[in-house]
Amino acid sequence: MSEVQRGLLAGVLASAIWGGMYVVSKVVLEVVPPVTLVAVRMGIAFVAMLLYLRLLGRGWRLPRELWGRVLAMGLVGYALSITAQFIGTDLAGAALGSLITTASPLVTVALASLLGLERVTARAWLGLGVALLGVWVLSGSGEANLPGVLWLLLAALTWGVLGLIGGQAVRRHDPALVSAWASAVGGAALLPLVPGELARQPVGEITAGIVAGVLYLGIVSTAVAFTFWVYAVARAGSVLSGIAFFAQPAVGALLGWALLGESLGLGFALGAALLVAGALVARPK
Questions:
Q1: How much of the chain is helix, strand and coil, in % rounded to 5?
Q2: What is the average pLDDT across 57-72?
Q3: Percent of the chain at pLDDT above 70?
């Protein structure tokens, strides 16, 4: 298996984990408010990845040359994007959550073109238009919660920005190291907001299932999946790894329907088809 194939496999595994994450987060968010949950999730992920690095005898200190990139990754991709993702999922549901954030690779394509980082063909712009039409169909369907959709679009935008920022950072450095410190930055950035949120929305009853869900979000959905994802970007590139993102809506929608009783009506199906078709058209041959 080539490096590119290993990267694509890692991207598919990360996306499949994130597809299931929307269902878990939907349940946990009924007890733990979103900003608090993201901060705790990031803290758990940071500790888990530091232990992983130490067990393997790898260095845990972040090279000075990565400080700026990791700071940006933590603030934009880990703190802002994931918080928007959680709020959007809480309002709009797991199926829409996993689907709309799949537009992230399209955001990366658009930003790369606007910033002159890569040449984007007319075919790619056509794909962007088709995908945006899909998001419009989703937003206009009776099944959608408009504020939730807007939060999810913010999550997609900021995650697309993360793809640009993180693409170079992980090419010559340990993906687990980069992801660990980005998690630390993301969690630390949200800590000042936690007391105010808890004053407005206290934590509910903590059960063994909620604890398991929080640990899953911190260890599996963050420590494991984020490391897989930055590895995918490093080995397969941001464009090819974007294709792997499409495992996310399939897993999220099916689990949301099977476990949470969420509706998958005609509007959802049409919007999903347009979004995925647009993304595939936008990908280079």
A1: 80, 0, 20
A2: 89
A3: 80
